[in-house]
Amino acid sequence: MTGGPVTVIDVHSHVFPRFSRAEGRTLAGAGEPWLRVGGDGTGMMMSGDEEYRPVEQGLWDPERRLADMDAAGVGVQAVSSTPLMFGYAAEPARAADWCDLVNERVLAFCAGAPDRLLPLCQVPLQDPELACAVAARAAADGHRGVHIGNHVGDRNLDDPGITGFLAHCAEIGLPVLVHPWDMLGADRMRGHMLPWLSGMPAETQLSILGLMLSGAFERIPESLRLCFCHGGGSFAFLLGRADNAWHNRDIVRADSPRPPSEYTGRFFVDSAVFDPRALRLLIDVMGVERVMLGTDYPFPLGEKEPGAAIRACPGLDDAGRALLLGGNAEAFFAVPPAGDPAGIAPILAEGRTT
């Protein structure tokens, strides 16, 4: 990736297919997500009869998305559902039916530009055994990864059932993208989008430390390709605090044979921290081969100029910049040799560069 133009790969973008009100009722009592579309390129994400968030056309229209990608110099996007669509509160069988519908629509969204849009599936994570079956089916249908929330109710990623699901993803070679959602402390974070500004970073740090300190990483195959969105939240800034606690308190290290800093090679993070100085710290903590471009397209809190923080990051040379802009994502989404779907190499061969 250092000898020529770089194919820019965005690992963190969202889609909300045009589900009708009737289709949203598949998740009766569990969010009932659907999309109300106006005639002016705007829409509204709906939760039952409640308006959830205004959105724009790139969220559901692949042609508009591709035009936006062209304008921004993005060659490839990994496309994942919007967390409102997870359906984790639903009865498992109904949630599985919903996930199959979502996954079918995401595949259809990407079908017109398979060299540029990589579909990620979602699963009924509230039932890990069923989630394994849905993930395997989606992978066979052409999904390139799985998108999950960072918890299911009070069950974090270190829950035995969820770690079993992660192990299954490792076994079938399916990368996992973890997104914070349903943020903690909502009763104290009223207004000003504080759940997104404060709750999301805390949720992601909680998930990462939970996997480390519970010993879950010791039980999950090292072959698992795992990525946390939003730069890993507050994890990088507070890693020193976690290491200090591990060394000085036996209750912190009771289930973890190694300090937290020794597990950073077990996962990736995206670059969505928006400040080149913060990105520099993130690279120093994670290593240049563990950070990938992520924009959170097309939401307002995403990076408006994809890769701007990467290009402005102090001390990052051309080789490192190429890794963050595309090389690391190329490795993350590469299909194992025994896999059935085509690898990402044909995409890169298309020459979509910036």
TrEMBL record:
PANTHER family (UniProt xref): 2-AMINO-3-CARBOXYLMUCONATE-6-SEMIALDEHYDE DECARBOXYLASE (PTHR21240), 2-AMINO-3-CARBOXYMUCONATE-6-SEMIALDEHYDE DECARBOXYLASE (PTHR21240:SF27)
Residue ranges of domain Amidohydrolase-related in the record: 9-333
Statement: the UniProt record of this protein carries the keyword Zinc: yes
Keyword check for Transferase: no
Species this chain originates from: Actinomadura fibrosa
Alphabetized UniProt keyword annotations: Decarboxylase, Lyase, Metal-binding, Zinc
Name of the molecule in the record: 2-amino-3-carboxymuconate-6-semialdehyde decarboxylase
This protein's pathway: Secondary metabolite metabolism; quinolate metabolism
The protein's Enzyme Commission number: 4.1.1.45
UniProt similarity note: Belongs to the metallo-dependent hydrolases superfamily. ACMSD family.
Subunit structure: Monomer.
Lineage: superkingdom: Bacteria
SUPFAM superfamilies in alphabetical order: Metallo-dependent hydrolases
